[in-house]
Amino acid sequence: MRGPRLGGVGQGQLRAGLVGAGPWAKTVHAPGLADHPGMTLRAVWARRPEAAKELAEAHGAQAVDSFDELLDQVDAVAFAVPPAVQAELAVRAAEAGKHLILEKPIAADLDGARRLADAVEAAGVAALVVLILRFSPMTREWLDGIKEAGGWRGGGARWLSGALLGGQYQSSAWRHDSGALADIGPHAFDLLDAALGEITDVLAANRTDDDLWQVLLAHEGGATSTATLSLRLPIQPTVVEVAVYGEHGYRTLGRKPGSAGESYTALLDDFAAMAASGTTSHPCDVRRGLHLQKLLERARELAGHGK
């Protein structure tokens, strides 16, 4: 099954629906979808109707009463909800022929991720994962230089934050339940994978009682890397750094403050082009999400935390 033809209020615009009305939906998804020239934000649905109404009205969209009503009005669905909720609803959206913008991790567990990836493949729709750092121009330039130079022996990622101690995400139940590995692990693993070659195995993983993760990864070609992750360290501002080392020295990548909006616009550029052309393959597509889910599952197993 092929995805829907583009339809909307503007020539060639993709009609988008947004599921969720939390902090990330408000600051990134809704303004990005509403302002992008290839998209129009048509409908918003959330479990809190008043929040959906407020967000929709702020961006010229309509708050709808059900997920089915949203599906009836759109060509594409962006999700800003917990992984377990996303996995269930995104399968329904794919089966309805809707293109998907998925948050990471794409599901709460590996079985859910496989079901979602299979549904996307069967429907023939575009599905991009919001690995937001990958869409930053700074990241793309860094990765291009890494690939051109070659000869990298190893690397590491550090993401150290107090996001669950205070601020807009401190009341996020799924982040408290699933911890740093699920929330920021996909970003770290994705960047290490893109820089050093495909991650083929998780060699070791440890989680402390306060959810500080140390993960050792093996890459295709022989490189190894480490990831250190926490959302419960009193660090301000957040530390985000990826590094590689080898015959060309030591190269680091940080995160530019306030770049999420710019990166999301770049994601929507790719997404709109995929939907218009019928393309389903992309470095950050749903298969990437499934690959990362496998790594998360393996790390949990090695740390003795199962699913």
Automatic annotation (TrEMBL):
The keyword Ribosomal protein is annotated on this UniProt entry: no
Keywords annotated in UniProt: Oxidoreductase
Recorded superkingdom: Bacteria
Segments forming domain GFO/IDH/MocA-like oxidoreductase: 171-249
Domain Gfo/Idh/MocA-like oxidoreductase N-terminal positions: 15-128
GO molecular function: nucleotide binding; oxidoreductase activity
Record's protein name: Uncharacterized protein
